[in-house]
Design brief:
With 421 residues, this protein is α+β, with helices and mostly antiparallel strands. It has 14 helices and 16 strands. A hairpin with a 5-residue loop joins strand 15 and strand 16. The longest helix has 20 residues, at 14-33. Bound molecules: histidyl-adenosine monophosphate (HAM). Histidyl-adenosine monophosphate is lined by residues 81-83, 112, 114, 120-121, 124, 126, 128, 130, 256-257, 277-282, 300-304, 306-307.
């Protein structure tokens, strides 16, 4: 074999693509039920879109972006996430002028140059949504509720919601000082990266896999919230209580992207090991303004489809059906019959789905293939009978000759009988 797929990517083959589609449909329908409208943005953006929004000190920007210079000398990046791109599109297309809350949802591939392992890929797929234009805690609770509703519709029943508030710029000023002092004290136990982070972006330490032990000794932002953020957090929790959504407070949950303010959350699945987050999200009240727009609060989440599908419960409704079986399987008995096969198939396609077999294998083999495809009717075209085709009901294997000119009538009668019977 000459070529293999790039490391960290996956081929999703036909039987699995049906499962993927059904999972995506459950999310799309749930999003629609909450008033979200779909948006599609480019797979690549100007690198700047991600630099300051996701944050230069984050692993995503500093280590994981697929960035290259295009032939016009511009730096572009395959999107590592979609929030920054959605905000770029929201502003560029003047959606902010609509007023009120703009609710947008999306699905598609994202790219991060990370070390591949189970549940972590270099190309992966997210579904997600962004609610732009409200700082009301009702919307934070709605965001968690919508993803939980979709995951429940997929059959998940014991997921953990981790919840935190990372405050706003106001509460981070005094907290940053407290945190830096503690990090200085614990400097000898920090990894090299975190020593560098202490000055630039101390909260990033909470996102470091190497400094787990130190994290327990650090003061948490949720103990240093300003009154407005504390009140906001309290109201998010009470709305979640009203919705009967359970959550656990995790005061170290700062998330791996810099744009978050106030609410952050993740939804975890027990059997996924280290890469156990099915979904992550939170509020980002400063991002729209940072991107050159008017002050506009927002909140959203994204969920990883590879991870969701890898732990999809056995009884999930998304697992039920396979591919849609063809209504007609047109078998071609010999090369000279091929022109009639083309016409017969075109006629039948006005009534249903048609798969054509011109493999020129012996008829028996073609019929076996029709059976495997779960076709309802096989139509056999052979040059030996130039005016008739053979109509074979695959359910009872009854076979009759039908004149070409009557074929569509017979097909119509057959399906009407089946429906009324
Ligand atoms: P994130 O936590 O970086 O957040 O990614 C969200 C989800 O994408 C993760 O929980 C995980 O399921 C999946 N994911 C991330 N990286 C990988 C990977 N390398 N391989 C497989 N799956 C992965 C965001 O991307 C934010 N944009 C979420 C957000 C939207 N916040 C506000 N709005």
């Amino acid at each position: 074999m000459k070529y293999t797929k790039p490391r960290g990517t996956q081929d999703i083959l036909p039987p699995d693509v049906y499962l993927w589609r059904r999972v995506e449909t459950v999310f799309e329908n749930t999003f629609e039920a909450y008033g979200y409208e779909p948006i599609r943005t480019p797979i690549f953006e100007h690198t700047d879109v991600f630099l300051r929004s996701v944050g230069e000190a984050t692993d995503i920007v500093s280590k994981e972006m697929y960035t290259f210079v295009d032939r016009g000398g511009r730096s572009v990046t395959l999107r590592p996430e979609n929030t920054a791109a959605v905000i770029r599109a929201y502003l560029e297309n003047g959606l902010h002028r609509r007023g009120g809350i703009t609710r947008l949802c999306y699905t598609g591939p994202m790219f991060r140059y990370d070390r591949p392992q189970s549940g972590r890929y270099r190309q992966f797929h997210q579904v997600g949504l962004e609610a732009i234009g409200s700082d009301n805690p009702v919307v934070d609770a709605e965001t968690i509720d919508v993803v939980m509703t979709a995951l429940e519709a997929l059959g998940f029943d014991s997921l953990a919601v981790k919840l935190n508030s990372v405050g706003c710029a106001e509460c981070r000023k005094p907290y940053g000082g407290v945190l830096r002092r503690e990090l200085e004290r614990l400097k000898g136990r920090l990894c090299e990266d975190c020593v560098g982070r202490t000055d630039k972006n101390p909260m990033r330490v909470f996102d470091c896999k190497k400094c787990e032990e130190v994290k327990d000794e650090l003061p948490s932002i949720s103990d240093h919230l300003c009154p407005a953020c504390a009140d906001h957090f309290a109201r998010v929790k009470s709305h979640l209580d009203l919705l009967e959504r359970r959550y656990e407070i995790d005061s170290r949950l700062v998330r791996g992207l810099d744009y978050y303010t106030r609410t952050t959350f993740e939804i975890l699945h027990g059997s996924l090991g280290a890469q156990n987050a099915l979904c992550g999200g939170g509020r980002y009240d400063d991002l729209v303004e940072q991107c050159g727009g008017p002050p506009t609060p927002a909140v959203g989440f994204s969920a990883g489809l590879e991870r969701i599908i890898s732990v999809l419960p056995e009884g999930s409704p998304a697992r039920k059906a396979g591919r849609n079986a063809p209504d007609f399987y047109v078998a071609c008995a010999d090369e000279n019959a091929a022109p009639r096969v083309v016409l017969v198939a075109r006629g039948l396609r006005t009534l249903g789905t048609v798969e054509v077999d011109v493999s020129m294998r012996v008829l028996k083999t073609q019929l076996r293939q029709a059976e495997r495809a779960l076709a309802r009717i096989a139509v056999i075209v052979e040059s030996a009978s130039p005016l008739h085709v053979k109509w074979r009901d695959m359910a009872n294997r009854e076979q009759i000759d039908v004149e070409d000119g009557r074929l569509l009538d017979v097909a119509r009668e057959h399906f009407t009988d089946k429906r009324s019977g």
